[in-house]
Amino acid sequence: MNRAKVMGRTDAPLLVCVLLAACSADPGEATRDGRLLIDGGTVVVMDEAGTVLEGGAVLVEGDAIAGLLDEADPRPSGVPVLDATGHLVIPGLVNTHGHAAMSLFRGLADDMPLMTWLDDHIFPAEAALVDPEFVYWGTLLSSIEMLKSGTTTFADMYYFRDDAARAVIDAGIRAVLGPHVIGFPAPDFGSPEASLRDAAQFLERYRDHPTLVPGTAAHSLYTTSLDDVRETARLAIDFGAPFQIHAAEDASEFATANELTGMGVVEALASIGALRPGTVLAHAIYLSEEDIARIAAGGAGISHNPESNLKLGIRRAAPVVEALAAGIPVGLGTDGAASNNNLDLFDEMDTAAKLHKFTNGDPTALPAETVFRMATMGGARVLNLDDRIGSLEPGKRADIVLLDTRRAGLTPLYHVYSHLVYAARGSDVSTVLVNGRIVVRDGRILTVDEAEAMERAHAFGARVRAVVERVATEAGTAVGGPPP
Ligand SMILES: [Zn+2]
Known about the structure:
Blueprint lengths: L6 E2 L11 H4 L3 H7 L1 E10 L7 E10 L2 E6 L11 E3 L3 E5 L1 E3 L18 H16 L2 H17 L2 E5 L5 H11 L2 E4 L2 E2 L10 H6 L1 H7 L6 E3 L1 E3 L7 H14 L3 E5 L3 H11 L3 H7 L7 E5 L5 H10 L2 E4 L1 H6 L8 H6 L4 E3 L12 H16 L7 H15 L17 E5 L11 H8 L5 E6 L2 E5 L2 E2 L4 H26 L9
The structure holds zinc ion.
């Protein structure tokens, strides 16, 4: 463990609690007025030096981290305290790839190849069912799941962007989302041109939003023409916004992309200038050495989704060790809940670390600290948001997670990164702040009504089942198990 010097503005004038009631108020309320001291935990800063402060404190001021205190430093008086005794205080996790509303399809169709899963199950179900309400409630459900398991930022790629935006703003989670194109009629727009027509307005509307980061996405080069991908990437470049695309996920994808573009997937993306900082290449499994060099030269990032890849039987692991060695930003992603089947990044960290030890035949491959960095600063770099999130350094947004280590499965604690990657689960998260606001407290979501979201999800489940049974009957195949 690396103990560190104190950073931050501990000598700044302190907020004076004029009213006693203000000092003893719920810290969730107190942050709105100004300051909150998260005190007594082990602070895992994730700065360059890998600073860990045992018995340290994080001073939050408004939406930002104002300072870090070591155990011995005097505490500011009159600042409401959030007691972090027995907790790890970590940067909020960053999920760099997913399809949030697909939580309503979780467990619908498993154990089949990617193209069968998409063409015979997901695309028909989406065509019949996905509408603004579906996207709002599905995105809200996923936002609740992610916040409660320590994810404070996620990148989303789905339909009905305005409704997804409403959900993430209601939930209080930080999200990258926006116009999405796919080369066939989608539930929200009949064509890529229609999706792009008013797309700039969306990016303009949320340009300065505190937690919604507008960006664009193209589904992939096997579903969408290179011209449409170029237009979608161009829009993101014009706004300095993130751009997401599935890339080099499946062996068959390479052949299709080659047929359509005459180039490999990464080569094609390079040819349209899309490999720049803020471009998220989801999966990026089938990469050649030249591809890795192209991505490194352009500055794009990779979203590594090991559980989704394993579940789909992709017979290769993304070349994460090589990508990191080439200086490419690499973050972790869960992919949608229909292909994982949870949105818990602690699970994803554990799997990522073990997958690369297995495929490299080397237990030293991807050590725990490297993997935790991928889930925090790595993800922030992939989304080009590393000036705002990914670490607990003063000046960054206060996206902070408290993980309770006073559990049988986490006691005793020798190495924080070991516990965070190999032992902890999302259910060990107790309290979460996003942008300085407490959104989860003692395991309860404070921003939205979780029971209502689950009730709505349950109702959508009945509709999904009815449609899937109809599609299966038409196709002459049996789908799904017994009724829930
Ligand atoms: Zn995906």
